[in-house]
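Render this sequence as a predicted structure.
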Amino acid sequence: MSLTFFILIFSFSIGGTFLLGFVMNEQKEKLSDQALLVAKTVSQLPEVKTYITNDNFDLATRHINPVVDEIRDINGAQYIVVLDMERRKYSHPNSEEIGGISQSGDLNAAFSEHYYTSIAHGDEGDMVRAFVPVMGEHGKQIGVVVAGYNVLT
């Protein structure tokens, strides 16, 4: 009886592990889609397209950051960052980061007009991130939007 019980428990454990892995993959895919949709939406905002090329950085951030913060809150994103072509941050949930230069190495493709998502592994768990270029008049790239969501583990 104890051998049968052990085999049964072991089988359920293995099945549960596979099921949990499947659920986690589904969650990452769903969050990737959501992050990409949010980043694309922000990249199309008139405030972003108008002010990211404005010479007055303070004026630009006063117009961009509040709108982006509201979208972040509504959509439950951990962060949405708008960057110009010099990687300067026009929006960030931590106001001290605004004006700083992003040092992230995984942004390079986004600055070459590529849309993509990635999973970052950090101290606080996995983060699904979407990278979307901001295109200005005549199809010229003027910046990048990055949206990130925590993956529940």
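Summary. The mean pLDDT is 86. The first strand starts at residue 79 and ends at 84.
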